User: Fold Olfactory receptor from Felis catus.
Amino acid sequence: MATRNRTEVTEFFLLGLSSWEEMQPVIFGIVLAMYLVALMGNALLVIVALSDPKLQTPMYFLLSQLSFIDMFLTTITVPQMLVHTLSVNRIISFNCCMIQLFCFMAVGSMEGHLLAAMAYDRYVAICDPLRYSAIISRGLCLRITLTSWVVVSLNSLLYSVLVTRLTFCGNQVTHFFCDITPLLKLSCTRPVVNEMLIFTEGVAVVVSPFFFILGSYARIAVAIARTHSVAALRKALSTCSSHILVVLLLYGSVIHMYLRPSSSYDLDQDRQVAMFYTVVTPMLNPLIYSLRNQEVKGALRRLFRKLCISRNFQPGPRFS
Assistant:
């Protein structure tokens, strides 16, 4: 790679989602609507999962954590993008960029770990139902969540530190937030260490949960095949279909964005995929889990019924 002019970068200029200025108001309206739907849907799912007595199970504890992660993930990038969409000044300081990179990578990786924990929960529930309560507990889910946070935080810190040590030959980031790939593209020399890290340690932390999920569902499929029961197959599909769909949405985007040779990156296309990953998927997740889950739908009905009753209740006058 030819050496380019080096500059002391103290801030970055984010090019945004699209370079068409006349489309900025339209983009603002669409993204704002999706962001609000994602926040309200996930917040509602968290409230229902944590407050409804019938949902006080490890599975719904993990689901509430996933919804919290989705709210955090979309909030890391979208508010800044909305401000920049209608602004000429699309500058972010170097330090803020590194903080955003760290938070985005940690939260994004955490989502995969939670989905792996949910896959293990489904595996035990289907393949070993009599020992489910002895194996899966709220305490175990809490320990898995805390351990995963430590792992993904250390992984993201390593990435962020290595990026800060790069020498940049420009400050125009072809993205709407500070992501690892467009930042590496600004490096004056090929960041070999960073690229090796993505395909080694990055695969171990980010993709290993995906292989764990595949292994869990493979064992579920084998167990169901041995029963030769259509009813067992229908029950398994009913139990796991929402989770499988969320996994496909997440890892389809992740594999397309990050686990490719650097020569095949298309930053313009990656911006659109990142928008799907950071806004569309968090918006769809609560809809998927609520529309395809009878227990969640029942909890939502009970919550709305309580809200309506409390709103319509008006205490009569008191007489001494």
Notes: Residues 29 and 235 are 41 Å apart (CA to CA). The beta strands are 11-14, 91-93, 172-173.
